Structure to design on (177 residues):
């Protein structure tokens, strides 16, 4: 006897097709056939309530990795954003740091921009203006700190070049001609 991954019922081994490794598959033949026809098999056809929008729905397929009560892709994305998984995934993929690392860097900088000290809550609301940006070296990928959007763009415009900043300082110190 083996438990089917599709219908979650205990069935004899002879009701399973062989996998590519020669062992019994994880889904019984009936569930495999239904899946191939497009008739998704669910462990429970009972209505559920979406944890994001509150809508009642009947699940169309099995949630193999996580059994969350989410009715649609839109609600799944809202859940990712609210839970912080989207932010954590972005920080890990792009900069190699976690959300906890971001928060510790922010705490080391006294909760504000590394250059001017502006706090994230003081930033103007709008696109790209609600958080401090991760400043990193484009050659090595090493994170240098967190900057407000204006200072992050300033560094980008100058190409992270110390020589360019020296020229700007000389220009400003020279005064009007």
């Amino acid at each position: 006897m083996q438990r089917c991954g599709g219908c979650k019922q205990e069935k004899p081994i002879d009701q399973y097709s062989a996998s590519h490794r020669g062992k019994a598959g994880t889904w019984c033949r009936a569930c495999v056939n239904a899946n191939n026809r497009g008739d998704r098999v669910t462990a429970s056809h009972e209505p559920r309530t979406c944890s994001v929008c509150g809508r009642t729905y009947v699940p169309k397929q099995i949630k193999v990795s996580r059994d969350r009560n989410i009715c649609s892709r839109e609600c799944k994305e809202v859940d990712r954003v609210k839970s912080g998984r989207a932010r954590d995934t972005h920080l890990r993929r792009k900069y190699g740091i976690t959300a906890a690392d971001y928060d510790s860097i922010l705490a080391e900088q006294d909760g504000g921009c590394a250059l001017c000290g502006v706090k994230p809550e003081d930033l103007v609301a709008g696109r790209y203006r609600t958080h401090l940006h991760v400043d990193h070296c484009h050659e090595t990928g090493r994170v240098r700190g967190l900057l407000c959007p204006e200072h992050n763009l300033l560094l980008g415009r100058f190409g992270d070049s110390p020589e360019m900043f020296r020229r700007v300082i000389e220009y400003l110190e020279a005064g009007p001609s």
Remarks:
- The CA atoms of residues 79 and 85 lie 9 Å apart.
- The chain has two domains: 2-81, 97-174.
- Residues 2-81 form one domain.
